[in-house]
Amino acid sequence: MKYIISTLLTLAIVVGIASTVQAKRGSDGQLNLVYWQAPSTMNPNLSGGTKELEASSVVLEPLGRYDETGNLLPWLAEEIPTVSNGGISKDLTTITWKIKKGIKWSDGSALTADDAVFTYEYCSNPDTGCTQSNYWSDIKSVTAVNSVTVKVEFTVPKPFPYAPFVGYNAPILQKAQFDGCQGAKAQECNKQNFYPIGTGPFKVVDFKPNDVIVFEANPNYRDASKPAFNKLVLKGGGDAVSAARAVLETGEMDYGWNLQVEPEILIQMEKAGKGKVVSAFGTSVERLMVNFTNPDPSLGDMRSEYVGGNNNRNSHPYLSDYNVRRALSLAIDRQVLVDAGYGKAGKIGCNVLPAPAIYASSANDECKTPNVAEANRLLDAAGWKRGSDGIRKKNGVRISILYQTSTNSVRQASQALIKEMWKQIGVETELRNLSASVFFGGDVGSPDTYQKFFTDIEMYTNNFSGTDPQTYMSNWTCKEMAQKSNKWGGNNMPRWCSPAYDALSAEMSVTSAMKDRIRLTKEMNDMLMEDYAMIPLIHRGDVSAHSNSISGVRMNPWDSELWNIADWTRK
Amino acid sequence: MIHYILRRTLIAIPTLLVISFIIFAILDLAPNDPTGNLPMTVPPEVRAKIRSSLGLDEPMHIRFGLWLVQFCVNEPLNILYEGFGISIGDAENRTRIISWSTRSPVVDLIIQRTPQTLWVVGLSYLFGILIAIPIGIVSAYRQYSWFDQVGTFISMVGFSVPTFFTGMVAIIIFSVQLRWFPMIYDTTLEVDSWQNFVSQVKQMIMPVAVLALYNASQLSRFMRASILDNLNLDYVRTARSKGLSERVVLLIHVLRNSLIPVVTLIALGIPTIFSGAIITEQIFRVNGLGQLLIIAIESADIPLVQTLTFIFAIMIVVFNLIADVVYGILDPRIRYE
To answer: What pLDDT digit, counting tens, does each position of B194-224 carry?
Structure first.
């Protein structure tokens, strides 16, 4: 027995020493990822799906990227350009990036500023059909000052110029490889799109679209001791539940992405002790959009159209009443929704802008506790009297809500719960769900899109990528109202219009001091919340799981979840 | 006979043309948008650009004509060129049917997916037949015996319990609890060594078994019914009164005649192998043709959906013809004039 114990002790010490020794490239063997939504291409510019961005992020890298707290880190760049270090011009119209020395592509050639310039040309060519072109907007020119310096000139002052070359949406492509693939040719270059050459820790060796991707450690990666794995397999297909099972119960996979699974099932699986569920909260908020315009089908062409300045003449029969909107929000018990559908993937959301933490307002925390009595009192006081059927009415208008969302089991469960909650305040609700490809499809001919919003309430999640809320918050300005005149191309679905809000948004676009940007953002968020232009429900997080044998995972809501895969190791 | 086959083939051409147009029209009229699954952070102007880069701005008849030419002319020529090195016309610059979600040729995707589907679904079909026929024979010959009762029970269960349930149960028992088989099918596995062969067999056992159970239960019922029909016929009595052994009566006289409808049924079922077992492929991540079709539908990848469904339509037409011809060969009483 003594002998066994001493052997074990010795072994433990040896293992302990071994694990402190710097790992060598490829020493930890194979890493298996399961992405139940399988990537269809490796070129992030030809697919806006998160799955493709995630997959390509282990190969293609940007100049700067976000860590898990939302800090911008220099990645391929020497440092993050700012006004104080001279990287950003005083008038906020140019930003100059310096590329780190000695960065090589996986084929051994050197990364230069020309590659960066090419990436801009590639994506800004309208024939390419680049899905990331909003990251390259308002750019006058991108030029290579010398082989390691790239200068981006904007057409307008950019207080937050970190969109091009930042994050997994806008990584650098190799010019030599993609040279013949610009414009319409981009569609045909499937060899390049499937096997892009990158600077990242891995390179693609086998790509089977919508099925599996096999990577190998990049022999020219800048850190000779990384990555710790010599092979990376990203398997796709199936469903979220079985992906969770493969990580948490059978241990076949080391990392499972986006495990949107009923919370109780995840908790059950985690008990098997093979892996851990991790979550990260970005900017996603599941919210109810409140229609300020009248969606009555009898209005024909005028359905859900905003008419006239401050006094909307086509206003909604009952949702234009502040008391009704407030009562609807007060009646919702958000914790019930979190427990029923989200678990670790959700928190109570009281703001349309819940993160990054510096921007999050605490002025609307009232929503954390439901208050049915107050909701009823408000409606009574506003003259909405209960009829014989228990539904409130005023001047012949019944509060009968048509409430739409996309087809998804969690959403339908939330709908049913909210319907019950609203029943308690004398509000009738009719539920409707539409296939996601129709609801989010944006087909101008279809009456069922979320942009047309031909119902009273609709529910979905929206968010913004990156950490700067300027563009996102400008979504609710008057000119963004989605209606016939702009072919429902705007982002202001509630058709909520406030000159005061527009003024704040305009001020934001010329303000660069962080302190002021934070103040403006909070003010705008609070304005939207206090007027109940939207009723936030859940601050949604991303949920993934990793095997207990993997260390180094730093779940990141601001960038790829695989952003630091070069640092992952097997214990 | 040859005249008949020729006539049927010629009739098949307009039929297929009509089918292809109907598929195209339905897909085109459906409120689907290939940019619908992009994140909401992608602005509408960018979406419009993507749609136009996919050729969606053209009117419908132009797109249909283009697809038809690509499918009927360009793709076969490309197969000749890549497979056999025969180049007809401008092989390098020939436009091919491109999938919208992957931006790669549709036919390449289909070729890539076919092996795993044929292995898993095809083998399960084969095993299903091999299991069903003996069970059907014994069940019919010993009607209402305990074997027949058990067989009936199992085939009822196999037929009525959906494969997504049996698949899930198999995963929970054999992957999660017993850890005998992997629950994720590795499509990159190449069988180049004994060890890899064992892994390949291991990962195929569950999906093949689940599907084979389903196929076998269906077929064994038909087999049983067909044998029962024949057992009561006069020629069986004649054979028995001639003094032939029961073995010869059953396995030579009855079996041959009872197989005629079953063989037709088997032939008609072959196209379903190619369309894959959509649900089973999803559960075990076999990622074959069935999963390809589902993903294409979800991401509104119209060229891929169109091409796949049309290939299935061709298969069905062809195997219908084959079933008819085989029927004529097996049963000399049937004559096609």
So the answer is: 999 999 999 999 999 999 999 999 899 999 9
Residue A545 forms beta bridges with which residues? A256, A277
Residues A391 and A464 in one domain: yes
Measured between alpha carbons, how far is B119 from A358 in angstroms, rounded to an integer?
Answer: 55
In a domain, A58, yes or no: yes
- CB A555 within 8 Å of CB A279: yes
Beta carbons of B283 and B171 less than 8 angstroms apart: yes
Cβ atoms of A308 and A508 within 8 Å: the answer is no
Chunked mean pLDDT (size 10), chain B, 337 residues: 85 92 89 70 74 80 89 86 78 79 89 91 93 93 93 90 91 92 90 92 94 91 93 92 92 90 88 81 89 87 91 91 84 73
Q: How confident is the model over A509-522, as pLDDT tens digits?
A: 888 888 899 999 99
Distance CA(A173)–CA(A123), nearest Å, equals 10
Pairing, β A64-66 against β A72-74: antiparallel
Q: Which of A179, A172, A183, A170 is CA-nearest to residue A128?
A: A183
Q: Which of A206, A36, A60 is nearest to A565 (CA)?
A: A60
How far is Cα B329 from Cα A13, in angstroms, rounded to an integer? Answer: 77
Shared-domain flag, residues A288 and A190 = no
Backbone dihedral angles phi then psi of residue A396, each to the nearest 5 degrees: 80, 0
Spans in chain A with pLDDT lower than 50: 1-2, 8-21
Q: Which of B:47-66 have CB within 8 Å of A?
A: 47, 49-50, 52-54
- What is the pTM for the complete model shown? 0.81
For residue A422, report the phi and psi dihedrals to the nearest 5 degrees.
-75, -25
Strands A400-406 and A202-208: unpaired
First to last CA, chain A: 28
Mean pLDDT, chain B, integer: 88
CA distance A159 to A491: 22
User: Nearest CA to B10 among B222, B321, B236, B259?
Assistant: B321
Evaluate whether residue A143 is within a structural domain.
Answer: yes
Q: Rounded CA gap, B154 and B220, in Å?
A: 10
Same domain, A311 and A443: yes
DSSP A135: G
Burial of B110-142, coded b for 16+ CB within 10 Å and e otherwise, reads bebbbebbbbbbbbbbebbbebbbebbbbbbbe
> Which residue intervals of A195-233 are DSSP H helices?
none
- The partner residues of A394 in beta bridges, in order of sequence, read A397
Closest residue in A to B297 (Cα–Cα):
A437
| One-character DSSP codes across A486-544 | GTT--SBTT----HHHHHHHHHHTT---HHHHHHHHHHHHHHHHHTTSEEEEEEEEEEE
Please count the structural domains in chain A: 2
Angle formed at CA A228 by CA A226 and CA A234, multiple of 5 degrees: 110
Q: Which residues in chain B have their CB less than 8 angstroms from residue A43's CB?
A: 103
What's the complex ipTM? 0.84
Tokens standing for residue A157:
């002052």
**Contact criterion met (CB < 8 Å) for A245 and B53:** no
Instruction: Output DSSP code: residue A134.
Output: G
Say if A246 falls within a structural domain: no
Chain A residues near residue B176 by CB distance under 8 angstroms: 245, 249-250, 272
- For residue A144, being part of any structural domain is answered with yes
Q: CB–CB of A256/A550 below 8 Å?
A: no
Q: Which of A172, A205, A237 is the last residue of a domain?
A: A237
How many contacts, defined by CB atoms under 8 Å, are there between A and B?
A: 169
* 3-class SS of residue A72: strand
In a shared domain, residues A222 and A289: no
Q: Contact B50/A437, CB-based, under 8 Å?
A: no
Contact residues for B317 (Cβ-Cβ < 8 A; gap 6+) = B12, B15, B16
